[in-house]
Design a protein that fits this description.
By secondary structure, the chain is mostly helical. The chain has 2 domains: 73 residues, no CATH class; 60 residues. The protein has a two-stranded parallel sheet. The relative contact order is 0.08. Strand 1, helix 2 and strand 2 form a beta-alpha-beta unit. The chain contains 5 helices and 2 strands; from the N terminus they run αβαβααα. Helix content is 49%, strand content 4%.
């Protein structure tokens, strides 16, 4: 082998990227790879937000060391009173989601034609009803 295929890359800090759009219209920076520091990103709220908001789409964004990032880690980002209110609101929404989901599953299970009412049976009832309705409308 006489040559090694190399591609020239340019890197910059999050602070330097503020105000920049990274994507197909940028001649130099078309993709963004965020390298997260070891440990928590809890105290890097501003940098994390700026880094992720620079790209034109999710297909232009990647994380170099994803093991340092988790859904729970993102949920814990920030330690201001507004961050605490956001977390409390998210927990309240999750609780309401569970109640609504259980209610919907019960209503769907009640549609089951069998003696033993199950969610799956109600789901099949709805599926068959939908198929019959769409077939009747197309004929």
């Amino acid at each position: 082998m006489k040559t090694i295929p190399l591609r020239i890359c340019v890197a910059l800090t999050v602070y330097k990227s503020q105000g920049m759009t990274i994507g197909e219209l940028n001649p130099v920076f078309q993709y963004l790879i965020v390298h997260l520091p070891d440990g928590t990103v809890k105290n890097l709220v501003g940098q994390f937000l700026v880094a992720c908001s620079r790209v034109t789409g999710p297909d232009r964004l990647a994380f170099a060391n994803r093991e340092n990032l988790s859904k729970q880690g993102i949920f814990k980002i920030g330690n201001t009173p507004s961050d605490e209110r956001r977390r409390a609101f998210m927990l309240e929404l999750r609780a309401k989601e569970r109640v609504t989901m259980d209610l919907c599953k019960g209503l769907i299970a009640a549609l089951d034609n069998h003696d033993e009412k199950t969610y799956e049976g109600g789901w099949y009832y709805l599926l068959n009803w939908y198929r019959e309705t769409t077939n009747a409308n197309t004929n």
